[in-house]
Amino acid sequence: MTMLNDQNIFGRILVVDDDPEVRGTMESLLRRMLLHCECAATLGEGLRAMREGSFDVVFLDVRLPDGNGLEALAEIKAIPDAPEVIILTGQGDPDGAELAIQGGVWDYLVKPTPIKQTMLSVQRALKYHEEKKAEAPVVALNLDRVIGHAPGMHAVFDLIAQAARSVSSTLITGETGTGKELTARTIHENGPRKDGRFVVVDCASLTETLVESTLFGHRKGAFTGADKDRTGLVRMADGGTLFLDEVGEMPMSLQKSFLRVLQEKRFRPVGDTREEQSDFRLIAATNKDLEAMVREGRFREDLLFRLKTITIELPPLRSRPEDIRPLAMYHVTNLCEEYCLPVKGFGSDFFEVLGAYSWPGNVRELFNVLERAFVASGQEKTLYAMHLPHDIRIKVAKASLGGKGGPCRETPRPGLEATHVPAVDAKSGSPFAGLDALFVGPLPNLRDFKTIMEKRYLEYLMERYDGDLASILKVSGLSRSHYYALLKKTGIASRQG
User: Fold this and answer.
1) CA distance 73 to 90
2) Domains (ranges, CATH) in the chain?
3) This prediction's pTM
4) What is the rounded CA–CA span in Å between residue 395 and residue 374?
5) Residues 247-269 pLDDT 10s
């Protein structure tokens, strides 16, 4: 490791904890390990120290006087040469551990942690960080078409770079319109197979009768209408990338045979007796919860394992509002070039309306709305809110007149049946009236009970506030990231998407 400040100190550590006793204990331990240690009592102090200094490892408490350590993970990861993060919390929480791991932490330790375990964790984190810095520099990614400045997008870019350096199978997940195909193309164009074809397979459009012919090809006379040989998409992807779009729609009848193709890279065209070979790199994308589909028997578990060597989850646009302006400017500039018009400017009210809308269709919907506004503006040099589609402006105006802050509300999604929401007592108005009904029959264990109640509480929130995110977060006290993590955990997110 690198020696610092001409002393026998290897590595720089920052401890962010509001308990002075914990800070003192950690500082003493780390100095005995010949590590340089600095401390911060608040999240703000810690983030400032990380931005101004260079640390290899950060011990981060969860509950701090001015914020939640887990919510700062994306911001920490966005720091150049970001340190490895070890969560050090006094209250172990399975949900917190899940959020921490999703946020890319090195370890999750619960106080009081044995000294030996703490030392081992920091030693491993330092070794990993040093090896990561010593790696040969990677050719810069071409991200010309991928726009994102939000903290959550930095983790996405890191995973894109990781996928581009390899030829491993990659699964891209995210809501409709988040840019899954663009992400797949970016991986391909920055990878070792960029000179090969990028072949798209739309699994949602595959018909049971022609699916094998489409993928594997056929020989002349193999079936009625096969008047000539046809090369399948799998063969066309030889030496390049095969992109399975909406892989969750792949028929069960095909999943088993396709699993063998992934394993052996061999297939047999319809009507042929000989096998052919295709050396392709696989990237798949879906807006469905494939793990839930596996549990329901609608997707093969062994196929899922083959698909998700690398997994990239694209965040919805509503969780990265700071990206709306750069995305809009990028797309409108492209439209001006396409129509051979001077670059248009923007009125301040234009971005105010865009920022007040929740974008259920994500980036795809945003680009569609921008093109409609562009066409409506004609030869005018500036885009104003009045150029935006009436339906968008009406929804934003109604939300504003209703006194709601933040992104405007959408019509409640179907599927929130009354049976999913706890009964409301007419006298008390409590959503937990009738709770005893849950205890009819065998008692659930505590963890299952907690999951049941979390789901009911979230459904009740969504029903009462019509899905208005700002109101839901204010009433529940949840952070945005924790809220979406709970939606995913309870299965509500997959039902919505």
Assistant:
1) 18
2) 12-134 (3.40.50.2300), 151-313 (3.40.50.300), 317-401 (1.10.8.60), 418-496 (no CATH)
3) 0.66
4) 20
5) 999 888 888 888 888 888 898 88
